[in-house]
Amino acid sequence: MKKLFIPLVLFSFTFTALKAQKELLFKMQYLPKHGYALLMKMDMNMEMNISGDSTIMNSLKKSGQKMPMIMQMQSNSKMDVQTSAATSVNEVPMVMNIAQLSAKMTMNGQESNLPIPNSGIQKMYGKFTKDGKMSLDSISGIKLTDSVKEATMKMIKNMQGNIVFPDKAMKVGDTFVQDIPMDIPIAGMSAKMLSKTTYKLIAVESSKAYFDVKMELTMDMTGKAMTMDMTGGGDGKMIFDTAIGYPTTVQNNMKVIYSFAMPQAKNMKMNGKMNMLMDMQTTVAAN
Description:
Blueprint: H1 2-22, E1 34-51, H2 54-62, E2 69-83, E3 92-107, E4 110-113, E5 122-128, E6 134-139, H3 146-160, E7 175-186, E8 189-205, E9 208-223, E10 226-241, E11 246-261, E12 269-286
Antiparallel strand pairs: 1-2, 1-12, 2-3, 3-4, 3-5, 5-6, 7-8, 8-9, 9-10, 10-11, 11-12
């Protein structure tokens, strides 16, 4: 009986260990006494075409304006986070710096470097709570009103990829969906955007988890005698480091088509398409 019991115990242990290896619970976190250096690159290509009133179109043609208008834009920005020792209530204080490094735009072949203001570097102070949420305490040189705090948090979440993992463990082949409705404040206008992102865990190797990403985007905007419709989608990749609880690579390729009635004149419309590549790389190290 003992000879039979031992193999059964070993089999049970092996099965439990294999199951544990296949299922992982993902949670974003910032570790105490660590530095997080994120570099974000954006490459955008837009094609814009105007049609409608013949008088206006002839005027544009005489001025030398060609259709469609082609615009390319590239920008580089960075976010640096330094955390200190955890407090007695398990909160992690942090100092965050966000800076625009470079920005370049080309319109119909004419290239120009966009100015980077001296005040482009923003230093923020705050903490990460024990449940993983970020709280801002102050921003250097800026009065931290509710509206400023909300806008800053949106910018930070965009740079981080704004990922919220499910509460249950995942195995290879599992997916989770994240819907992000947004009201975009534009003077005199109402803009509502919905972003739907599906993450699929495709592989786990050592401490790295690899995800495929699929995105859908819709936006409706009205106001000032103007309406705009936008739809799009794309794909991407994410690499999550399970040892530190943070995505070290996030890459997205988004394609969008749009159309809107121009308020400057009746029967004038603009339609076009956009292709945007985003690449975010994060290096994490103890400080």
